[in-house]
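Sample 1 of the test manifest.
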Amino acid sequence: MSLERAVIVDLQQRFGDAVLSEQATADSISTIWIHRNRIVDVLRFLKSEIISPYKMLYDLTAIDEHGRKHRANQPASRFTVVYHLLSFDRNQDIRIKVPLEEENPSLDSATSVFANANWYEREVWDMFGIRFTGHPHLRRILMPRSWEGHPLRKEHPARATEMGPYQLPEEKEAKEQHDLQFRPEDWGLKTHDENSEFMFLNLGPQHPGTHGVLRIILQLDGEEIIDAVPDIGFHHRGAEKMGERQTWHSYIPYTDRVDYLGGVMNNLPYVLALEQLAGITVPERAQVIRVMLCEFFRISSHLVWYGTFAQDIGAMSPVLYMFTDREYILKIIEGITGGRMHPSWFRIGGVAQDLPLDWQKPIQEFLNYFPKRLKEYDTLVMGNSIFKGRTVGVGAYSQAEAVEWGVTGAGLRATGLDWDFRKKRPYSGYQNFDFEVPIAHNGDCYDRGLVRIEEMRQSLRIIEQCLKNMPAGHYKSDHPLTTPPRKEDTLVHIETLINHFLNTTWGPVMPVNESFFGIEATKGSNGYYLISDGSTHAHRTRIRTPSFPHLQMLPLLARHGTVSDLMATLGSIDFVLADLDR
Amino acid sequence: MMAEYPLFFAVLIPVCILFGFVTAGSMLIWAERRLLGLWQLRYGPNRVGPFGLLQVVADTLKMFFKEDWIPPFADKSVFVIAPAIIMTTVLLSFMIVPVSPDFVVFDSSVGLLVFLSLSSLGAYSVVLGGWASNNKYSLLGGLRAAAQMLGYEVFMGISLMGVVAMTGSFRLQDIVEAQRGMWNIGPQFIGFIIFYIAALAETHRSPFDLPEAESELVAGFHSEYSGLKFGMFFVGEYLGVTLMSSMMTLLFFGGWLGPVLPPVVWFFIKTTILISSFVLMRATLPRPRYDQLIVYGWRVLLPLALLNLLVTGGIVLMFQ
Amino acid sequence: MLIYFYINAAIAILATLLTVTAKNAVHALLYFVVSLLALAISMYLLGAPFVAALEVIIYAGAIMVLFVFVVMLLNVKPASSQKYAPQGHIKNWLGPFSLLILLILELVFVFRDTEFLKRQVVTVSAKEVASALFTTYTLAVELTSFLLLAGLIGAYHIGKKRN
């Protein structure tokens, strides 16, 4: 009996009737329906009472089942809450689903089991209106406090044109103003203790140190941070809601804009999830092209992080050098894809075009040029003693804390856990590449930096291998759902011509199923959970982004440091606000 | 000639010094941006006039015509006085700077002490500016500035006492003349390093720009300032850099001494090189944390400065 | 020269008065700084440039900045100083007032002898100040240093983190 089966049997023995049913999904992650009464116990059981437990709450979201036609063998449900757990020991995931039948349901909060459930549950409340009883601070997280309705419910309009013209009558203005006023109690903050009266510093949403529209409320005693409360949602653009109205194909450009520094890296988990759903096998050449571009974007994103991190510490020049190098990469990317930051270049079943003629030359030049620069930056930034003084031992967390808070990517590897999705769950042919996964051990700002810088070197190795071993063959699959199908074939086969016509007009119709795919993106693990109801667009598109849990952890890192430490920590986390708010 | 027309020179010298240094200070804004551009693989201002030289004029005009805004929540009188203090103290400091043996406004027997006292008064500008703005970021900037300038003044004073002990005078002309054999940078190398660091901290230039740390405190103590008042802080900072560089030239690099070229030119060359080194520091170094800066000052620089004074005093006594 | 002295003295007295009467703590401190600066100039005029410079460096430049720093930290609002406004009660005034009378009498007694006003102003150099401190007034210097040391230790004790 496989480990996976064993868990399900254990669950059935332990919880009996509370285990409602099992569901088969395209991603072959065990999916189990649990009765709402026992959900917290089940989560606790999976987290700490089995061998090789599921230690990380990787994602928590919900599905509005309204209007979903194909739900064979699934318990009746109006809203379904989905818990996605990850086990490092097993290298396996498990998905727990809880059916809720009421129009305004409520459910026990999982915050007592998983610390990072906090923000996820707030998001579900905000988006679906599902209440979590026992949640310490259940209030809207992404939408403004005065927002009416819950956007990811099916009855909530997706377009502004469906909502009637915007109006701001006086009473509404007064209400908005009132909501904007800062009252420490609303955020669970005390104004004073027996020794001192605290100062509240409102850092952001417009502040040069927050890299975008992020607000952090700081409770200060002198310059020491007593508590920090991030206020997010300023960059929320409803990317998940748009997934429900765009066709499978036309949603690709939206993914680019989630982590806007990651470029095509954002396309990858989306198209991989779709290919998994549709059972498309991607030709090798397309896989290698995808890997090469992704690694370019990894370097480009890390360069932006590197420069702005140094800038946050007060070094002025590195960011300018690094943007110069990034420009080099963007030129190469422009040569291949025609786009720079948001090429939207991956397609369901392949990539948009074949590589241009003579594509090797600029890449080879870059490979010769860049390692020297990295060495120079090591002396200028990482080797500088002031820089070390600002980052070593600052903003540190342990491996256990990282797992508890759902940290992935370089932040997790800096605590000594050798976990890289490219190695552990190779996708898109990463198993064929020779590269190492850099780790560090202290989990502080400096180590997170070290890991990322070494990652750039490893990415260069991967790019070099792509350059030397680019396979011949097609850049697109010949599966009928490939969108758009290869043009050459449409001139020969009537079948392909029909597919081309359908896929580019209506959009491709994906088979009914559910599919999740997570990859090692630039900032951590980025994953897409797609539910197809057999139509041209998704019934639900869930984007699991790394910045969301990373930033949720901020108060833990900020406490008892100074404002300067907070800036170093923020810089070292490497987040993008669009990745946070989606 | 000076003896023949005393009144004429009594007016000419101050006017020359004032205009000379103020021009130099504001040109420094342009020079810094161009130098930073050079070091950071970009151009810097190059549109207004030849090499962008008139950028300063354009900026000044802009500042003059901007709305001179005082926030309603600010302490008005202090808010207005604060930027004036930095301009006044720095400009007054230039009166004791001898650019050549005779070319000085105020030939004081305690010239060095006048410089130190005026620079210690300069701290008020930043502290009061931060307080009067009644803004939390400004207040934090002001607090940082107070702690930083207070601490670094101590070492600045002590680091110079080695030079004074060697010369036996506080008069700057005497100090320069005493360097005919060898510049003080040789025997007083430690003193120079400490003074240089303290000078960076006093002018709150990067890497010691904590009072206005952009990524942390937005613009620190001058967040609420705009228009001409901001301009005074801005130019005051550059004048401070010029002043500190002139002082280093006088105290450690033999002031106007040098072969062939006239004294004023030598003074100018040395000062310019030192000013450029300030800009280079800004291009290179990250910023330490506030507590690190303070600890570094009191635990490293202060003992070092005292030791330097002790050793210098001992050697001076030995050769008497 | 004398006219400078009188202007300066007037500024000193005015600034000191304003220090005592100012409502805002920071304003009061600023008037105090002005008063100290005026005193320094008086000293310079009386032929003690070294002491004048030290007065500015130490008192006006360092100690008073520290005071401003503390006031900023405590964030004293103008309203809170109302609490300590004089109550007008006679017995609150009695002590300070009698001490003031005593001080004035003392000054009158000292300035009865006007001989020193006719003396020529002689500049006292730094060297003379130093040798006076380390010969004639050694004991006073040592005692002062003890006092400062005590203050230092006291400050360290208070500033130490309470666990």
